Amino acid sequence: MKALAAFAMKRSFNVYLLAAISAAMPFTFWLSAALVGLVTLRKGHTEGIGVLLAALAGSTLGMIYLGNTVAYLPLYLSSTAIVLLASVLRSTQAWSYTLIAGTGIAITYSLIAATFLGSLFDPVTDQLLAQLNTIPDANVYRQIVEDMAQNNGFILIFAGGSVDLAVLILMLSRSWQSSLYNPGGFRQEMHQLRLAPWMVIGLVVLAFIVSKLNVYALEPVILPLLITGVAWVQAVMAKRDMGGPWIAALYIGMLLVPYMLPLVVILGMIDAFVDVKARIPASKNHQNNNDNEV
Known about the structure:
The protein is mostly helical. It is built from 16 helices and no strands.
């Protein structure tokens, strides 16, 4: 990936071509979006918009050829969100503000999508209901699908999830930028990530309001807390010199162990008010490495 990013950044033609080609294929749109983020972070939003236009041109051609609008919708949402998010990160140099901006963008996109694009998922809903009607004892799942259809659940999750994906892709862009121009910088940023107390309070209040209005729009409100919690755990693991197996166990646990995700979210919230990480003693190896760097 580093070699690909280096090739893309050699000249504008390279990145335009790669962005257009990868955007034309539904399963590689993330690469196109990551290139948009990389250029925006490195050269600013003007250059980033140029790469975005190349990506949108490629995705439009692919959409016309395949005749599938829904398959290309994530690229439109994610790529445009990445330009905004990368511009915030470039100007503030703070992931905390970038994550909060991501929540705001996701809610805005969700409202627009629910207003104008909700009908795109009608065929998906009809197909799911038709399949569930053929399965005995599927009443619970049928009720869930019907509730999602009535409350724009599919499009809200899709739009909010596309912006959440944009945040994760932006992290990939930042890691590329770090590996090319500032080795170790991205890792240090993640380990230092903390939300301000007012951000956590605002997210909790917003989560309460959104859950009362439409629970399907809740995901983007939780994401900043989740990412902050994961960053906190990884920073503590690095401080205690706990290697790759522990990090792998963290992600597997979040996928498989009940209540693991809520616990990580709570850690992200607590970290904003109490800097527990600073009170955890570092391992001897970690201290020696820091001394060597100094």
